[in-house]
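Bench notes, afternoon.
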Amino acid sequence: MGWPSCALAVWAAAAVVAMLAAAVGESDAGELDRSFPIVEPDYGHTKLRLSKEGLEAIQRIETPIAAVSVIGPYRSGKSFLLNQLLSLSCDKGFGVGHMRDTKTKGIWIWGTPVEVDVDGSKVSVLYLDTEGFESIGKSNVYDDRIFALAAVLSSLLVYNLPETIREADISRLSFAVELAEEFYGRVKGQDVAFEPAKLLWLIQRDFLQGKSVQQMVDEALQRVPNSNGDKYIDEVNQIRDSLAVMGDNCTAFSLPQPHLQRTKLCDMEDQELEPLYVKRRDELKQLVASMIKPKIVQGRTLNGKEFVSFLGQILEALNKGEIPSTGSLVEVFNKGILERCLKVYTERMERLGLPVSVDKLQQVHGLAEDEARKLFDKQHFGKHYAAQSFLNLDEEMKKVFRNYGLANEYQSSKLCEARFSECEEKMDHLQALKLPSMAKFNAGFLRCNKSFVMECVGPAKESYEHRMSKMLARSRSLFVREYNNKLFNWLVAFSLIMVVIGRFAIKLLLLEVAAWVMFIFLETYTRLFWSSDSLYYNPVWHIIVSSWETIVYSPVLDLDRWAIPIVIMLHFSYLLAVHRCEATDRPIIVTPV
């Protein structure tokens, strides 16, 4: 086969691969061109759980995500509205129901995100359809969880209401208001946990004449007189006040009825709908597009995988208690900050080498605690509910501090026990001196006590100091008692040795006589006139002891250590002297020539 034939075969193979890839891409796109559940109710219809099918569709998105959620009462036209915003027919888009029960269960998304340009960046917009409020067979707590989840996930929250604004509709916004108060408007220039969704009041089938929808919203948000002190009215009035403060984050829009035959809306084309509705619907599309911003969580946008992870965290927090609470969400967002603050505290404590004194440990704990608290005050999310996160941080730091306290006690006991054992061994060694010396014992006693005081630190020091003082006192008492007896025996032996040396070694009569006098004094005179105990308190004995101490031990010469080497050297010196004397006295023999 020639080169042209090979090239043609390669091009053909590449074309087939390209066609297959395109077919796969079109197949994937086709599979996503429908609605998916992302959150479903549990069996009891009180809590929510994730739906894997919808999450897989979101996880494919790699660009920043913005979510538009439509919330409101059941059978208020939320699904139809979303289809209108997406330019989808009812049979292709979100399911639309006309029965008394709600069609949408949980939260659904449209699988194919709408790509828009926001401030020069590509943003993928997800449209979320939520289960309607107040439908049959559900609890209010379930509705609250749906609303709370939509409020947290969304960049834009479309509050779809039929005809007018009721007191209950305002009450529903309590969670959104709490979120805004907790998270929105923190210190400018710092990261926020998440920017609360913008709120779009959408009043459908507006039959009211003579006033705009904005006027209707403003009137609905005016405080209601409460002369009787009704608790519920007070709560709703507080929500009204907060919503009024959030005015910059709220927009109102009205949408007239599309057609009188509501059950046939899905079968109608635009030309069959009310012209005013079509016009206002298109204006609503433009308004929604202008309000879309990418979801910001802790200072950054989210792609598909990050959005799903965020969804899981929020759902876990909302399912945590009997009722969904802003406090549980605050704890979720403060979790990472708590970990950072705790790490700062722990790292500061780790720089402290154990063991240390209790005061030092408490001092470093205080400094580390202040540093962690300052970081929390600077970075934490939430206003009213942050107190619980602060208490959690405080409790965690106390746990770490307790662990350090236990570790400090252990290390202190270990160190003090080692120093105590060393001193005990040193005292035992001093008890066994060959040549007993009070000066040497006192020097060792002071060195041991000084090293113990300097090196034994921490909470165990006090108890070991008590043990140390008792051990040293006992050792000193035992040494003093044995010292006099050993010294007396040594002096008796020394006098006899001097007698032998004076008579046979150096043959010095004076030395021999002095040695005999000393021996007789110790063995006879003292026993006749002094008791063995009274001898040790006699001034003469003190003179003997002082002389002995001068000979046996000094900072320069420790006779107990060097006695044997000195005796050996003296012995060899003596033998060498004798050998030289013998060599000098040998007669000189002259050999005749």
